[in-house]
Amino acid sequence: EDQVTQSPEALRLQEGESSSLNCSYTVSGLRGLFWYRQDPGKGPEFLFTLYSAGEEKEKERLKATLTKKESFLHITAPKPEDSATYLCAVQARGGANSKLTFGKGITLSVRP
Amino acid sequence: DTGVSQNPRHKITKRGQNVTFRCDPISEHNRLYWYRQTLGQGPEFLTYFQNEAQLEKSRLLSDRFSAERPKGSFSTLEIQRTEQGDSAMYLCASSPAPLGYTDTQYFGPGTRLTVL
Q1: What pLDDT, on the 0 to 100 scale, is given for residue A95?
Q2: Which of A83, A82, A78, A71 is nearest to A32 (CA)?
Q3: Residues of chain B with pLDDT under 70
Q4: Mean per-residue pLDDT of chain A
Q5: Contact by Cβ (8 Å): A72, A21
Q6: Beta pairing, strands B31-37 & B88-95
Q7: Chain B partners of A98 at a C-beta cutoff of 8 Å?
Q8: CB–CB contact B43 A87 (8 Å)
Q9: pLDDT at A93
Q10: Which helix (H) or strand (E) element contains residue A22?
Q11: Is residue A14 within 8 angstroms of chain B, CB to CB?
Q12: C-alpha angle with apex B93: B24 to B35, nearest 5 degrees?
């Protein structure tokens, strides 16, 4: 069964203090790894898709990387508006398999 | 706004009542998904459609849950004889990918269900 584990559960940063969020996964053949941002009471907002080990993608202060067992979401010089829950999900290869398996998320708080 | 829309946004019901939620996907997206999310957890897959065909259902989806996507457009999720354990956020997502390809799923705002 596919599994996703995210750590830490919560992270508090000072504005400008860079850090990384971890996503460990086990999957029977990775089709894609996804990062989403979720604000309280709202649906997840798509950030990145990574397909193979070594791949990196960037968007503003965020950079996502992928290895064969983990993905990292690096946040450079965060601002208070980056405060949210960050969700990692995997999609497995094979047939009609299309569902996403999510981790529990990492709640990020950035203090001004 | 051309994103995924869901109605209602909030639903409060008494135990034993039936409820129905609606999801309108992004125009021309042929895949539509339903997930359920409880507090402190990530979304859990319930079911998905490729056009009007329901291709996969999670074992989480008991006989009290039924989903439809007539004509491959909007979808409805019905819960019969609701229980307090059904209280959760019900999320709908859509994607443009054809079968077998990696796809990006775009989520709606969700319907928050509270069962009293």
Answers
A1: 65
A2: A71
A3: 1, 98-102
A4: 95
A5: yes
A6: antiparallel
A7: 31, 33, 48, 55-56, 95, 97, 99, 103
A8: yes
A9: 85
A10: strand A19-26
A11: no
A12: 115
